[in-house]
């Protein structure tokens, strides 16, 4: 067992990784996991807002914001430079919008984690949303929705999320 803030982290005996929980002054909760035997590093940001929070008349807003965040930030304004950075350093990235949360994540070769994390964090600190990317992603989100609306598994997921 390891102490993490006010939580005790319980892990299997054969799990050699180290865990630590940190809560920042802005209330952001962080779970750090250290595994010196891996050559990859990864991060995930989970925001407790999903499609159930979409205001009436703006259905798809959470999903749209999920798409928009990965374009550019004030610090890294070149569109898609985040994805390019990850690809060049053995990494990848993805995100999803669920009913009650939106999740963003990436992995990258461990030596490049610090800059990758800074690029990732800037999307949440000062994102850049150009009018050009905005209209592109409105269309992308709309076509994704039109494709998924016919799939029963998505409706099941929404129904089960209500309980
Ligand atoms: Zn999408």
From TrEMBL:
One of the Pfam families matching this protein, by short name:
Peptidase_M16
Domain of life of the source: Eukaryota
Q: Name one GO molecular function term.
A: metal ion binding
Q: Which UniProt keywords apply?
A: Hydrolase, Metal-binding, Metalloprotease, Protease, Zinc
This chain belongs to the protein called Peptidase M16 N-terminal domain-containing protein
Ranges for domain Peptidase M16 N-terminal come to 30-159
Which family, according to the similarity comment?
A: Belongs to the peptidase M16 family.
Query: What is a biological process (GO) this protein takes part in?
Result: proteolysis involved in protein catabolic process
Q: Name one GO cellular component term.
A: mitochondrion
What organism is recorded for this protein?
Picea sitchensis (Sitka spruce)
């Amino acid at each position: 067992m390891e102490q993490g803030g006010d939580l005790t982290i319980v892990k299997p005996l054969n799990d050699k990784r180290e865990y630590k929980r940190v809560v920042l002054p802005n209330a952001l909760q962080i779970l750090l996991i250290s595994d010196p035997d891996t050559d990859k590093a990864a991060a995930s940001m989970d925001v407790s807002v999903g499609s159930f929070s979409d205001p009436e008349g703006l259905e798809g807003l959470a999903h749209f914001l999920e798409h928009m965040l990965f374009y550019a930030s004030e610090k890294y304004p070149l569109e898609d430079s985040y994805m390019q950075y990850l690809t060049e350093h053995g990494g990848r990235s993805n995100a999803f919008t669920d009913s009650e949360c939106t999740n963003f994540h990436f992995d990258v070769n461990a030596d490049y984690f610090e800059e990758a994390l800074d690029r990732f964090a800037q999307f949440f600190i000062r994102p850049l949303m150009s009018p050009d990317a905005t209209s592109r992603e409105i269309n992308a989100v709309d076509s994704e929705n039109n494709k998924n609306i016919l799939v029963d598994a998505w409706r099941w997921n929404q129904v089960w999320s209500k309980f």
